[in-house]
Amino acid sequence: MRLETMTGADVALRLRMESDPQMMAELGGPRPKEAIERAHASSLLQAAAGECWPLKIVPDGAVDAVGTVAVWKRSDDPGEMYEIGWMVLPEYQGRGLATQAVREVCDRARRERRFGALHAYPGVTNAPSNRLCEKAGFTLVGQVEVEFGGHRLHCNHWRIELS
Ligand SMILES: CC(C)(COP(=O)(O)OP(=O)(O)OC[C@H]1O[C@@H](n2cnc3c(N)ncnc32)[C@H](O)[C@@H]1OP(=O)(O)O)[C@@H](O)C(=O)NCCC(=O)NCCS
Questions:
Q1: What is the pLDDT along the chain (163 residues), one digit of tens a residue?
Q2: Global pTM exceeds 0.90
Q3: Distance between CA atoms of 106 and 32, rounded to whole angstroms?
Q4: β-strand partners of 151
Q5: Measured from the CB, is residue 130 less than 6 Å from ligand 1?
Q6: Distance of CA 95 from the midpoint of ligand 1 (Å)
Q7: Beta strand pairing call for 2-5 and 53-58
Q8: How far is the CA of 128 from the centre of ligand 1 (A)?
Q9: What counts of helices (H) and strands (E) characterise the chain?
């Protein structure tokens, strides 16, 4: 698996994943096309400013990406708080790709001394994501209500120290 920085063309991958009811089941349901396009454009702008890592996951020997892992600055936090999130297309799930990708992002952030710590907020019933956090070395902080796309989600708050 390798990670590559997303470009404008990768909006197609995000549209496929974030319009899929199955993939968005733990995230409040499918997002409208315009919201996905806006979010992607905004992540590329933040990346240009060095505040966001919008990455795609490409399996060994493949050309096309099958998922994403991204780090972004939380807009509702007055301090410097960075969140990480992930998605893998259903037909590529269960192969360890998301776990490898998240570990690689954490290793890179440690090497480059970026972010200080990363926070993740999977829904409390999102078993694969909560397991992923545990495997990647995050610590469970507690439970919180998170606003996403107009939905209030009951989430676990996981944190990993990188410095
Ligand atoms: C979360 C997600 C990215 C995981 O991707 P993945 O590449 O399949 O993850 P991995 O293969 O690295 O597996 C992670 C762990 O979850 C476990 N897992 C998978 N499905 C599970 C389930 N239904 N119940 C419990 N554990 C599960 C895996 O077995 C693995 O743990 P293990 O190594 O101890 O067996 C993928 O399920 C997804 O895209 N979900 C929809 C989007 C989403 O909810 N994103 C998270 C937002 S916070």
A1: 999 999 999 999 999 999 999 999 999 999 999 999 999 999 999 999 999 999 999 999 999 999 999 999 987 666 789 999 999 999 999 999 999 999 999 999 999 999 999 999 999 999 999 999 999 999 999 999 999 989 999 999 999 999 8
A2: yes
A3: 30
A4: 148
A5: no
A6: 9
A7: antiparallel
A8: 3
A9: 4, 7
